[in-house]
Amino acid sequence: MGYKKRIDNSFKDVPVLPINEQSRCVLFSDCHRGNGTNNDNFLKTQHLYFAALEHYYRNGFTYIELGDGDELWENRSMDRIKEIHGNVFWLLSLFYKENRLYMLYGNHDMEKKRNSFPDKNFSSYFCTSSQCFTDLCPDIRFYPGLILKDTLYGTCLYLTHGHQASLLNSTLWMLGRFLVRYVWKPLEQIGILDPTNAAKNYTVKKRSEQKLSAWAKANDKILITGHTHRPVLNEAPSLYINTGSCVHPRCITCIEIEHGTLTLVKWFMGTRKNGNFYLDREILSVRALPGYDKIL
Prior knowledge:
This protein is α/β, with parallel strands linked by helices. The protein has 7 helices and 14 strands. The chain has a single domain (3-294), classed as Metallo-dependent phosphatases (Purple Acid Phosphatase, chain A, domain 2), CATH 3.60.21. Helix content is 27%, strand content 26%.
């Protein structure tokens, strides 16, 4: 099966979420929440991510995660990930209770597509403040894709992780997981990066982006993905968009949807003249959806 067919299949029988000018959504991808060891790339930016999540929760955004939220190639235990990053899962549970949480799976958390995975791993978590198990996201389901449909102009946004552009990361994902878990994970600890990883190899990254962009152009659809970790918006005339990731060395990136506009933003730590640190949000790029560009 070719990559075009794999992407097509990602949008079969998936939820279609209506949005309008009043809707507020935030798209994150590639958090790679780990188990707290040296291989946990999320540790470096977890404080930025949690602060950003609090902002979006307080301001009524719907949280949409485009896959690779949890690092399940390097780690076998979801319980350990929930324990280490309990504050994050607590906040995600608040989004879920208010029907403001949608989660997709990518290659690094492909396990989530198994029917038994959500009930086993996302029904509850151990809350350290109350010292007991509490509801996490009971009855949640993970999807390969999600479609956002604007009710005013009919524009659809097609959301998926983007790993479908790579044979090793999609059809052969079990082989990819084996290589990461038993070959590249130990080598990474001594500074040797995985050459097959789209986020770490420029050639692989570019090849994946070309395929994703080609699919969007051939189908005349706006395609929003993660996977490559490179944020992309407003590279006209391309219909391909990328949220970036939450494991950049010094920042995290995401895409906000509000008032019919896509906004690529970066969250990072700034420094005041007196040496104090502060959390900052910077707009990197803005793009109006078709129709809204005439009224904004």
